[in-house]
UniProtKB/TrEMBL annotation:
Record's compositionally biased regions (Basic and acidic residues): 1-12
Protein name: Uncharacterized protein
Upper classification of the organism: Eukaryota, Fungi, Dikarya, Ascomycota, Pezizomycotina
Species of the source: Oleoguttula mirabilis
Region described as Disordered: spans on this chain: 1-20
Length: 189
């Protein structure tokens, strides 16, 4: 056996030993297969009921704070497989701009908004303006007639997203006037 061949065989054996040693070392979450990580993310993040999102509930799941890769992998599970809810009093959006929910969630997350109080036009208009400037999320379709009036206002703003707010505000104001002319079931405070 030549020196070169013996050296090559030793390297191969050493390489195999280092692979075994690497495999047996303390594994991290990122060292296990993605399929297993997804099971762990689901176990840690998916809730049976709704997750409340509002100012007092400001703490994001700790798992999302570990590193960028885990946040990117786990966020899809957190936001795609849970149902979120937020109470809206007097049409004032209760989730602060810097809340983790606003920072990480896309508009595809299932968010149930529960209306309480009265319909305050000034609050809705402020919410619409912040939605127009992409500071806050909007809302989707609702089955209730009361909420559908609000949802249509967001649809108008979405269609006019590239239009300056001053113009959008005029259009939304005309929409409000049209709602005011309906059967009187919708009143603004």
């Amino acid at each position: 056996m030549t020196k070169q061949k013996a050296s090559a065989e030793a390297k191969e054996a050493g390489g195999a030993q280092s692979e075994v040693a690497q495999y047996n070392s303390n594994p991290s979450l990122l060292s296990i297969p993605a399929e297993l990580r997804n099971h762990i993310y689901r176990y840690a993040l998916v809730e049976e009921g709704e997750i409340r999102v509002d100012a007092p509930h400001r703490t994001q799941p700790a798992l999302l704070c570990t590193c960028r890769q885990i946040r990117e992998e786990a966020s899809g599970i957190l936001f795609g497989e849970n149902r979120f809810t937020t109470p809206v009093m007097d049409l004032e959006w209760p989730v602060p701009t810097d809340h983790w929910f606003n920072k990480h969630v896309g508009d595809d997350a299932e968010l149930t908004i529960r209306l309480h109080g009265v319909q305050k036009w000034a609050n809705l208009e402020a919410w619409l303006q912040r939605y127009h400037s992409r500071e806050l999320r909007g809302i989707g379709h609702s089955e209730s007639q009361e909420w559908e009036v609000v949802a249509k206002a967001f649809e108008i703003v979405a269609v006019l997203k590239r239009t300056p707010w001053e113009t959008v505000q005029k259009v939304v104001q005309k929409y409000k006037e049209g709602v005011d002319l309906t059967d009187g079931s919708w009143t603004w405070a």
